[in-house]
Amino acid sequence: MTSVTRVGYFLEDIAHAQFVTAVVQRVADGLRLSVTHDVRNASGGRGRVLHELRNYLRDMCAGHLEMAPLIVVAIDGNCSRWQRRRGEIVDMARRAGYLGNVVCAVPNPHIERWYLVDTEAFRKAVPGSNPRQLPARKCKRDYYKTELIEAFRAAGVIPQLGGAEYAREIVAEMCLDRVARRDSAFRNFLADLRTALKACC
Hints:
The protein is of the alpha/beta class. The protein has helices at 14-30, 45-61, 82-96, 112-116, 119-125, 143-153, 167-173, 176-182, 184-200; strands spanning 4-11, 34-42, 70-74, 101-105.
């Protein structure tokens, strides 16, 4: 690893922060790229993410902050189309004059689905757990959050952070390409992330 790339993050909550930074680290390691994780926002939901991102872009493009070559934004899809969510973020960056790369992670409908998509990885990361095979997509509120908690309970675990504290272990066991085949939103994120990180090499 020869160069260091600073990645700025704008994320809805700790579940996004732990999972998304772990995926970025895995992909960067595979490219032999050293990255630093600069988490600028990881709370407050979608509205707070977009507000803080807008302020960050304004200050960075005005020269008040060091330019980050890559920004990763994670917001739940909430059953909206990936293109729509991505479009509003990319348009915001373009209007601000940002010249770096923007990668959007839009788990659909919620981040907890990504924790569960690779059941084999989940079982390895949390021995004794019993995650169920997931439906293609279910928009019922809290469906995936409940499934995630139940998978931990089967192992006798009550996660204090809703499962976020196990994100690194789960991601470490994942076959990223298998997850991409099973979940189109993850596939979009992974493809954009790989392209952006390669551009930073």
